[in-house]
Amino acid sequence: MSMGAKPSNNHAATEGKEWWRSPFSVFQTNLQEVDAVMDVERVLDIIEEHGADTWLINTGGIVSFYPSDLPFQTRNPFLADRPSGDLIGDAVKAAHKRGIRVLARCDFSKMSTHIAQEHPDWLFVSPKGEPQIYNTLYSACPSADYYQHRSLDILDEIMERYPVDGFFFNWFGFSETDYSRVYHGVCHCQKCQATFAEYSGGKELPDGPGHANYPEWLRFSNGVIRALATKISDHILSRRPDAALVLSRGAPVIYYEANNAFGRELWHHSTSENVSAHMTGLPEVSLMVNSVSFVDMPYRMAGEQPEHFAQYLLQAIARGGNPSTYIMGAPGRIPYANLPLAGEISRFFRDHKDMYGQLQPGGGIALARPDRLRAADPGYEDSVEEFRGLYSAFKEKHIPFDVVGADLIAKMDAEGLLDKYRLVVLPDLGALVAGAAAALDRFVEAGGNVVLTGSSGVTGHGGVELATAPSIMRVGTPDKGQALWATYVSTSAQPEAQAFHYAAPTIPVYGSYAHFVWKPNAVRIGVMLPQAPFGPPEKCYGHVTGGEPAAASASRYGSVIQIPWSVGRTYREFGTTEIRDYFLDTIRGVVDTPVAADLPEQVEMIMGRDQSGLVIHLINQTGARRKSFGPHVPVDGGKLHISGAAGTAELLVSGAPADIRNSGAGIEIALPRLDLYEVIRVPLAR
Predict the structure, then answer these.
(1) What is the percentage of the chain residues whose pLDDT exceeds 70?
(2) How crowded is residue 284: how many other Cβ atoms within 10 Å of its Cβ?
(3) Are 221 and 214 in contact (CB under 8 A)?
(4) Contact, 383 vs 427, CB < 8 A?
(5) In Å, how far are 158, 304, 627 from 263, measured between CA atoms?
(6) Across the chain, how many H-helices and E-strands are there?
(7) Which residues contact 181 (CB under 8 A, 6 or more apart)?
(8) Kind of pairing, strands 423-427 and 365-369?
(9) Distance (Å, rounded) from C-alpha 24 to C-alpha 101?
(10) Burial classification of residue 16, based on how many CB atoms lie within 10 Å of its CB (0-12 exposed, 13-18 middle, 19 or more buried)
């Protein structure tokens, strides 16, 4: 019986440490027990044809796909039907002969019944004192011994037997919800009770999101997972410096899962958002984008729409992530119609690794994303809607931008990463994380510009955190809900408002409007038309200006524009171009980009940079549907206007010669027909 394989001399991953710092592409076969007998050579043929260079394969945890000798692992019973008795040994040996890396997939979240009965102290315990059981498997608690210590024993056994190139951990966290979306609560095992009490100063462990202590528990649980990830990562690297650990947080390689789900609103730009937020704030950490081939976990045999799956991969590579295609079972057993198109994109990435190895964020504008550790805090969902509204405004008008994590602003400032931006936009974030306000003040003092919407940079008690802001303090609490209905702002002075005659535009205000005391030198922009009766029609009048502005600004080397209402949320809810254009017109003076596009709103333009200049991805999203992307409509007649360009350009997807004309201080590129996507490299003048 094979106990593993030695690395081949021609195995690419052994040529140097930290292979994950260069571009890589993954193919994940999320195996079922019956796949223990699969033909590894046939699978590797498919992986190579797909364009991937790394194979992610189930190895240990819930079920071991190798003949484990550890008493707290359950061997796959179908290994007995495999001639060698060892799928992982066969897979690693065959893959390394081809120069394909192997990542070992482990899942420590659950264990079999007999192991659970022997070690009840390893288990998740519900607030009612019950274990969490799903398909005979018991959920484990990350605070307990199985995760904290026995997982290291499993990794040691795998590393002793097989020269795998890294590890991927599935479901690495606290299991509040099971696969059927049944909520079981926060773990109340003895270990969790003791450690949370120590962390919180003796507070009660919450039972779920409705408890007052749940936001603090989220931060506590995040700390537990990060500490555990660090311990496991250090353990692996101490034994195998050439092996990567892939986790959702706290590891040398971070993964984001691009997926769809029934019953959940689709945010069509989720992959782009998440990859961008990572690459701007954590460029030192590689990112793998795990793209799910099926529509949702309960329907794993139903393939995702091909054009939708393509969006995962395209948005990932355009923002600097490493693509991964994730299927169920051995290739060929389940018919996924999205794989041919996914293969085209994976091969494009493979063929242009030199470019993607240099690709850096290049949007010039930083749009801050709300801190996800505040997901249980009041107002978080409103802030997300504000963010998405502003994201859509920039995207639709082809104004290049990057997403930054609001929680990473201070880190970016300390590392000089904010310096690449001329504008930072904060979407109704409320109080900022420690150090962020001071970082933004330094950014403005150095000539940068900041846009605040809603109550961004304002404490719960109304204190304004940015010294460079045009306001001194907020007065009271923001107007919200029905108290704000029939409220408007306008860029016009409204000289005839007393006679109830109004000048265009009148922009609706939805969500929240915060009242501020403005500094004497603040420049007020536009006016607010406070609430008046909105029904019945005979009584619908009475809006008169009362001195409140639509926005205000202050300048000190750079500038801060403060829009005291949720303009992004209003656009997200109402969707009229007048709202979007109001926002963009208000900040136009601080928007400076070298690229302008004549393209439909449904084409997303993502701008990055490499050593020679700009790398522009154009992604055709005309097929956007409520819950997916369908077939796209080809786009003809598009143009790009690029200032500072050297006069040449490459169209990497179509291969068509670039139709370039000199235009002022730059060039104009007349684009050929745009199908699903195009990538343009444009050298800039030195």
Answers:
(1) 98
(2) 8
(3) no
(4) yes
(5) 39, 15, 10
(6) 16, 34
(7) none
(8) parallel
(9) 10
(10) exposed
558: which strand partners? 556
Calpha distance 78→53 (Å, rounded): 27
Spatial CA neighbour of 12 closest among 105, 104, 98, 103: 98
Written as six digits, the tokens of 55 are 């194979």
* 3-state secondary structure at position 287: strand
Q: Tell me which residue has tokens 């700009």.
A: 614
Task: Compute the distance between CA of residue 2 and CA of residue 88 in angstroms, rounded to an integer.
Answer: 10
Rounded CA Rg of the chain: 27
Does the structure show a pLDDT above 80 at 8?
Answer: no
How many Cα atoms are found within 13 Å in the side-chain-facing hemisphere of 105?
Answer: 22
Question: Per the structure block, which two tokens stand in for 605?
Answer: 């333009």
The total number of residues shown for the chain amounts to 686
Indicate the pTM of the whole model. Answer: 0.95
Q: Walk across the sheet containing 666-670 and list its strands.
A: 595-598, 639-643, 666-670, 659-663
Q: Which residues, 6 or more positions from 124, have their beta carbon under 8 angstroms from its beta carbon?
A: 131, 132, 138, 139, 140, 141, 174, 175, 184, 187, 189
State the Cα–Cα distance between residues 168 and 257, nearest whole angstrom: 13
Question: What Cα–Cα distance (Å) separates residue 187 from each residue in 131, 292, 384?
Answer: 9, 28, 28
Please state whether beta strands 137-139 and 133-134 pair in parallel, antiparallel, or not at all (unpaired). Answer: antiparallel
Q: Is 460 helix (H, G, I), strand (E, B) or coil?
A: coil
Q: Which tokens belong to 26?
A: 């993954």
Sign of CA dihedral 157, 160, 162, 163: positive
Contact 92, 243 (CB under 8 A): no
How far lies 189's CA from each of 37, 114, 192, 670, in Å? 39, 19, 5, 64
Residue 453 DSSP code: E
φ and ψ at 606, to 5 degrees? -120, 125
Q: Is 191 left (phi over 0), alpha (psi -120 to 50) or beta?
A: alpha
Report d(CA 439, CA 418) in Å as an integer. 9
Angle ∠(196,200,172) on CA atoms, nearest 5: 40
- Rounded to whole angstroms, the Cα distance separating 253 from 166 reads 10
Per-residue pLDDT reduced to its tens digit, 615-663: 999 999 999 999 999 999 999 999 999 999 978 999 999 999 999 999 8
Q: What is the pLDDT of residue 13?
A: 37
CA distance 289 to 319: 11
Q: Is the Cα dihedral 62, 63, 65, 68 positive or negative?
A: positive
State both tokens at 121.
């102290």
